UniProtKB/TrEMBL annotation:
One term of GO molecular function: acyltransferase activity
Pfam families xrefs: Acetyltransf_6
Name of the protein in its database record: GNAT family N-acetyltransferase
EC number: 2.3.1.-
Superkingdom, natural source: Archaea
Top-tier EC class: transferase
Domain BioF2-like acetyltransferase: 169-294
Alphabetical UniProt keywords: Acyltransferase, Transferase
Length: 332
């Protein structure tokens, strides 16, 4: 039986399907997609594949047009969203051949819908970790580039995890410091402070930082409670640093933060350890350090004993990178 693709615009129904997805992220939720669409000035299409009446996969796609040119994205650009893309529903165990066939038919049906309804001149996607079979896109003339992130396994007990850290990381999170500091989950105001700290650090390095504070605070206020969690370190009661964590399914993602500070204690190490401990206490199985693609930053993240996990950037192969860059510039 072939797979039919339809859009599901009812937020509750969409979120029910996302809850059954094999590789869901916080941004797959309807509330997150709404915020992305608003800040990207894009149209979001909540694609669901059905085999008869049975839903088999979800695939949120955004379209953006400039004059006669339409592009498709998942996620939209310039919002520092690491992953989105398709996810099969994880409702039953299937043998390899059947799962491969379902994945291919689902992807083909979604791309057919996209081409028929919007005819994008190119499409670019970032898959979630765990969605590892991108062959249907390659067979549809997409270029697939592997990307990497680090996942800390939180299924170990606390002491076992700490013992796996590098020696400097263990020392940094275990030492007693002659400083009055606290580590805690903060407020929406703390999420804004994290964003502003990261923006200031980018400005110091002469690097752009396109993310607005309002975007992050809107996510905090509109996503379900407990999805956006700002964690902060305060020294003598004053904000010193922190991270904004996105938590959905069984994974906590260190989305924003970790800006270098001038504090006399290792703020970022302490915050990451606190995030791991808090996530473990909530029964989360993984802490995603959100990126292992930058050699300098990867060196810091690797000391927390993570596993290296791949995801993919997919772009249709019919357009050159120069054409892609031009269209990105026009759409910004």
């Amino acid at each position: 039986m072939s797979i039919e693709v339809r859009t599901v615009d009812d937020a509750d129904r969409w979120n029910e399907l996302v809850a059954d997805a094999a590789n869901p992220t916080a941004f797959h939720l309807a509330e997150g997609l709404d915020v992305l669409a608003e800040y990207a000035d894009a149209d979001c299409h909540h694609l669901v594949g059905f085999k008869g009446k049975e839903p088999v996969g979800v695939f949120p796609v955004f379209t953006m047009s400039k004059g006669p040119v339409t592009a498709a994205f998942s996620p939209p650009p310039d919002l520092k969203v690491h992953y989105l893309g398709p996810s099969l529903l994880d409702r039953q165990e299937m043998k390899r051949r059947r799962r491969d066939k379902r994945n291919r038919r689902f992807v083909d049906a979604c791309l057919d819908w996209l081409n028929e309804e919007h005819d994008p001149k190119f499409t670019t996607l970032l898959t979630p970790p765990g969605y590892d079979d991108v062959r249907p896109f390659v067979w549809q003339e997409f270029d697939a580039k592997p990307r990497y992130t680090y996942l800390v396994d939180l299924t170990r007990d606390r002491e076992e995890l700490l013992s796996a850290f590098s020696s400097d990381a263990r020392r940094n999170v275990s030492n007693n410091y002659d400083v009055a500091y606290t580590l805690e989950e903060g407020t929406v105001e703390d999420a804004a402070r994290v964003v502003e700290q990261v923006r200031a650090r980018h400005e110091e390095q002469g690097e752009p930082f396109p993310l607005s504070t309002e975007f992050v605070t809107d996510l905090y206020e509109r996503l379900p409670d407990g999805v956006v969690r700002p964690y902060v370190c305060r020294i003598d009661g004053e904000f010193a640093g922190g991270s904004v964590v996105l938590e959905y399914g069984d994974t906590s993602v260190c989305w924003l933060g970790g800006a270098k500070t001038d504090s006399e204690i290792p703020v970022n190490d302490l915050v990451d350890w606190h995030c791991c401990v808090e996530a473990m206490d909530r029964g989360q199985s993984a802490y995603d350090l959100a990126g292992a693609n930058n050699a300098r930053i990867a060196g810091y993240k690797a000391k927390f004993a993570p596993d290296l996990v791949s995801y993919y950037r997919l772009q249709n192969a019919s357009r050159t990178m120069s054409a892609l860059s031009k269209l990105y510039s026009r759409l910004k």
